Amino acid sequence: MSLVSASHPHAPQVVGILGGMGPAAGADFVRLFVQACTDRMEVLGIPVHDQAYPEHWLAQVPIPDRTAALNDTRPGAHQPADPMLQATGRLAALGARVVAIACNTAHAWHGILQQRFPQMVVLHGVQEVVAELSARKVQGVGLLATRGAYDAGLYQRELERARIACFVPDDHEREQLMQGIYDGVKAGNYPLARQRFEAVSIALQERYGVSTLIMGCTEIPLALAEHPRLEGLSLVNPSVVLASALARHAYWHIHPAG
C-alpha cells in the first residue's frame, strides 16, 4: 500500500484554502502550496508523485472588499464575515482539517472563523510571517499593505509583540499602494502596479534604512519582485510563508524517512 494512499493512516491531511480575495491571488496561492508540498516531501523523504500531494480545496468565492468593510462596520451584505464563514463551512464539509486564508487584510476576521470552527485549525498568516522574521533575527521591517490592514494594525500589533520595529508609508504612499492594488493588479494593469509598489518600497528604504519589506497584501507579490531597482531589499511574501505552514500541517504526522 502506498504511504499516502487515501486509506493509509499516514496520508496527508485534507486542507482548505479560503480564496477569492482577489481571484488571481487565490489561484497563485494554490501554486505556492503545491510547491511547498513538493519541498516538504523532499524533506520527509517521500517520493514525489501525483498521489503524494494532499487533498486540497480552494473556496474561490466572491467576498466583499475587506478594506472597505473595516472602515464601515454597519451590518449588511458589504461585510465579508458571512461569506467567509459560509465558504469555510463548505471546506469543513469537504473534510478540511486545516485552512489558510489567502488574504492578509481578511485576517481581521481570523478570530471569528476560528471560534466558529474549533474543530479546524485556521492558520494565522500574519503570525506565521512574524515568527519567521523572529527566527531570522530581523529587527526592523517596512510594511507594504492595504489601507485596511494598516488601520487595523494587523502586522504592527504582531510585530510589536515580537519586538520587531515596523516602518509604514505616509498617507500619499499608502494611496499609491492602493492604486497599485486596485487600478493595477485587480484591473490587470501590472506595469502600473509595479511602478507604484517600487516607488513606495524605495521610499521606505531611503527614509528608514530598512533592508526587509513585508509584501502584506496578496496582490503585491504578483507585480513586485526583487531586481536591480530594489537592490539591498529582501522581499517577504506572506503567501509563501503561509503556503509552507499549510504544507507542514498537511504532513505533520509523517516523520522523515530513515
From TrEMBL:
Keywords: Isomerase. InterPro entries: Asp/Glu/hydantoin_racemase, Asp/Glu_race, Asp/Glu_racemase_AS_1, Asp_race. It comes from the Bacteria. It holds the Pfam family Asp_Glu_race. Belongs to the aspartate/glutamate racemases family. This is Aspartate/glutamate racemase family protein. The lineage of its organism: Bacteria, Pseudomonadati, Pseudomonadota, Betaproteobacteria, Burkholderiales.
